[in-house]
Amino acid sequence: MVTIGFDKCPDEVYKRFEGRHIISIRDFDRQDIECIISNALSMAELLKKDHRQARHLLEGQRMGVIFYEPSTRTVLSFETAMELLGGSVSGIKDPKVSSAVKGETLADTIRVMAGYFYDFFVIRHYDEGSVRRASEHSRYPANNMNEGKTIPAINGGDGSNQHPTQTVCTDMPTVVKHFGTLDGLVYLFNNDLKNGRTVHSFVEGLMLCKPKKLYFCSPTQLRTPENILRECAAHGIAFEQIPRYEDALPEVDVFYDTRPQLEREQLPDDLKGKIRAVYTVRADEIRSKAKKEMIILHPLPRDSKFNSPEYAVDSLPQARYFEQSHMGVAGRAGLLCLLKGVRL
Q1: Cα separation, 273 vs 322, whole angstroms
Q2: Catalytic residue at 48?
Q3: One of 16, 62, 73, 111 is an active-site residue; which one?
């Protein structure tokens, strides 16, 4: 069930997206988010009925992917979305075989590729703010009939900063699909809340909504950045930092687990082991304490060493992380249509 607000995107909001860069959740307002979610859910229904019906929507369009960090879901869902819409994809998925090894900057790469008749760029980079800086050079050059116009640059993750399409194309549509709303729900974010860019984007998106409460559960070393907590307070959002997710579990509607990015931290091995032991999402805890209608989300990948959620959680009705991952194709296909002004 989808509540009013997600059923149709007004024309005046739809028009905001044509040729727009997608860099940060901070660039959106509530109507923007609702519009993207509406398109995600509409596209999901279209693809479910017959994915071949989408082939004409962006026929002949070309997407350039520029990934300087590993990716499975983000790059494949964007590629799949583009191909389902009738477009094509090429670019850089391994910087080791590009001129980046010779010292070429991302900005120069964008300026070069802009002349190769691409219509979108999807970029993942290890530096925070890198995609926004690159977007300043993302426009059609003189060899294109659209000379001077913007080529939409889409942030596929910049360091531990932002991952906006994970939030508005994948995570939030999954929540709305199940609850019909983003408002009035209790959210729990678990594990690495310091380096988890998906958490940062999701929480910043919820600042435009009316959640009942946010719980942040993490080791001391991996806590939510203070600036995000200050913004929650400034928006009047109730939140609490807790040491164990079990303490809040009976209240929670949306349990958002994350992978502990311990490779980014200089921590002793015994502490890493304790983090894994305490913050793993365990099936017995979910069975005994969680609401049956609660959903568990995870941006994936699930670290084989950390094993969270436990594999036993996969068979529980609350486990929705693979469904969440699959939503990424429809959500990103819907976003691409928005950026070209194509109505579904």
Answers
A1: 26
A2: no
A3: 73
Is 102 catalytic? The answer is yes
Query: pLDDT tens, 232-245?
Result: 999 999 999 999 99
Looking at residue 8, its pLDDT comes to 74
Say how far apart CA 40 and CA 42 lie, in whole Å: 6
How far is residue 281's CA from residue 277's CA, in Å, rounded to a whole number? 9
Closest CA to 327 of 3, 39, 40, 87: 40
Which of 163, 177, 259, 332 is an active site residue? 163
**Would residue 177 show up in a list of annotated catalytic residues for this protein?**
no
**Which CATH number describes the domain made up of 164-325?**
3.40.50.1370
- Catalytic, 72? Answer no
User: For 143-154, what is the mean pLDDT?
Assistant: 93
Active site residue 73: yes
| CATH 3.40.50.1370 domain span(s) along the chain | 11-163+327-339, 164-325
Which of 21, 109, 124, 167 is flagged as catalytic? Answer: 124
Name the active-site residue from 74, 80, 198, 224: 74
> In whole numbers, what is the pLDDT of the chain averaged over residues?
90
* Digit-coded pLDDT (tens) for 312-327: 999 999 999 999 999 9
> Measuring CA to CA, which residue among 21, 331, 23, 26 is closest to residue 204?
26
The pTM score is: 0.92
CATH class entry, domain 11-163+327-339 = alpha beta
Catalytic one among 48, 96, 102, 292? Answer: 102
